Amino acid sequence: MLVQRVVMPVSGRESWTLLGDDGEVVEPAERYLAYLAAIERSPHTVRAYAVSLKLWFEFLGHASVGWDEAGVEDVARFVAWLRAPAGNVIVLADGTGAREPATVNRYLAGVFGFYDHHARTGLQVAAGLVSWRRISRGSYKPFLHHVTKGRPIPVRPVKLHVPPRAPRTLEAEQIVAILAACEHLRDRFLLSLLAETGMRVGQALGLRHADFVSRKREVHIVPRAGNANGARAKLRSAAVVPVSVPLVRLYSEYMHVEYGGIDSDYVLSGCRDNTYCPEPGVIRTGHAQLLVIAMTLFRSTT
Length: 302
Prior knowledge:
Layout: E1 2-7, E2 14-19, H1 27-38, H2 43-63, H3 72-83, H4 101-120, H5 124-128, E3 131-134, H6 145-148, E4 152-155, H7 172-180, H8 185-197, H9 201-205, E5 212-213, E6 218-221, E7 239-242, H10 245-259, H11 287-299
Helix pairs in contact: 1-2, 2-3, 2-4, 7-8, 7-11, 8-10
């Protein structure tokens, strides 16, 4: 099976679909993915759900179970299938699964979302995969109790426990080493912006010149749906983040030394030699791309 990128003919928006081994669209999955695209979910979300359904349909093919015949036991077997390592891998006594519990839960979110959608259309077996739990009537009231007011809410019947762990961060010395290794002001400004403000990669790559207000030392994060590089702010309304004087100076230096006369509304535009920009003018989105750049720069300093 193949997760295939598609572009809508009228709107030009990006989405994803699932193709079977015969090259044809997997119709049940396509109906759900088209629904996600219609309600304007992020293309990255649609792709993630498409990958989840790809694994689910591959498992159903191995198990000889129809998608409209699957039950909770099949989902449990699917979890075991996801956690099992490859056949040529020797598992040690204290070894772990091939995929982390958090990763498995992300795949399950796509599968249960798929069946929840089909349950709303009247598919009986799909309704069996959507469990319901009533909010407690005791003295304890959850934060959003006023939203449900005791009504049943959907829950996943199968979910792995994810042990809590602190997010991995860079030490101050490591950030300094990365910034010192940058050969371009654009790279130094981008990484400084992320380190100082905590912005998402998509938020940084979607910045326009009007969003960086130097005189007020502010960065405005504005959600826009039509960014040429596909960047998404993941915000419902605009936000304002204060920045330091050194970052403002770095922005000004980047504008005067490297940016020059580039005709682009984006702050982070491609350098003239296109060091890692696939198209002139705009840096394309992608967490992996930025991480590879950062790791490469950091390794060169150690």
